[in-house]
Amino acid sequence: MTTSPLLANTREELADALRGLEGPVGFVPTMGALHAGHASLMERARKEIGADAPVVVSIFVNPMQFAAGEDLDRYPRTFETDLEVCAAEGVDVVFAPSVDEVYPGGDPQVTVDPGPIARVLEGSTRPTHFRGVLTVVAKLLGLVRPDVAVFGEKDYQQLVLIRRMVSDLCMGVDVIGGAIVREDDGLALSSRNRYLDEGQRRRAVVLSRALFAAREAGPRGAAAVLEAAHQELGRVDGVDLDYLELTDPDLGPVPDSGPARLLVAARLGSTRLIDNVALTLNGDN
């Protein structure tokens, strides 16, 4: 039998809910439209803090990270189903604030500058995105005060930036990356997958196939990795590639050998998907 989590909509309600709980706090920030990938992050948070400590999940569609013309208005909102997912995972508190609760008085005058890492990859086409992401994450971390926060590796650049912010600003939170959860055919789970029509859904799997082919090519070096990925992507029409970039694990220059990360973004119709994979260059995968 599952127990419904405490629901907090205001800062005061969140503080009251947390005041009655004991032990280290695990935190999973989300924008809702929860799926098995989010559930795995909740499970990871529970594993990190222990069975008897509290897990908090936030559900908040953050307007600051959407630019004009992006999908803020049509971003899926499935609150009742989201609560069922949280209950099934044994979440203790769900924080679901309004925009006015998170940003009283409108847009904040003080925001987080994400620095140079935010100007590449996603930032090259979404220049204000990570300022919005880091600002809301900083606010949520300040409100929840967790010991551990879990973020999915699918949004890998976001994860790298949050780790950098927490380290540079001495926030005292252990940031954990949760592994990407995939459909049986390899497509990374995403709340935006529901935008895809049947044909686009079939074509979308080429992104993960390209990444997996590249990973197998890792022992042959960086050039072979990129060639393998491009060859796989070239097999499918209707996939508009935004970027395919090979970096080190911290999104720096490509190493000669050792751990690396390959990241991809592409559009299928009006839907933009991202994915990534860890690989090893000039060595065993």
Provide an overview of this structure.
It is built from 10 helices and 9 strands. A 6-stranded parallel β-sheet has the order 1-4-3-2-5-6, with helices on both faces. It has a 3-stranded antiparallel β-sheet with strand order 7-8-9. It has helices at residues 11-19, 36-49, 79-88, 99-102, 122-125, 129-144, 156-168, 198-204, 206-216, 222-233, and strands at residues 6-8, 26-30, 55-59, 93-95, 148-152, 174-178, 240-247, 258-268, 271-281. With 285 residues, the chain is α/β, with parallel strands linked by helices. The chain has 2 domains: 6-178, HUPs (Rossmann fold, 3-Layer(aba) Sandwich); 191-281, Pantoate--beta-alanine Ligase, Chain: A,domain 2, CATH 3.30.1300.10.
CATH second-level architecture of the largest domain? 3-Layer(aba) Sandwich
Q: Within the largest sheet, what's the order of strands? A: 1-4-3-2-5-6
- Quick one: CATH superfamily of the largest domain? HUPs
Report the end-to-end length measured between terminal Cα atoms.
42 Å
Kindly name the structural category: alpha/beta
What is the domain total for the residues?
2
Main sheet overview: 6 strands, parallel
Uncertain residue segments: none
Tell me, what's the shape?
A: globular
Provide the CATH top-level class of the largest domain: Alpha Beta
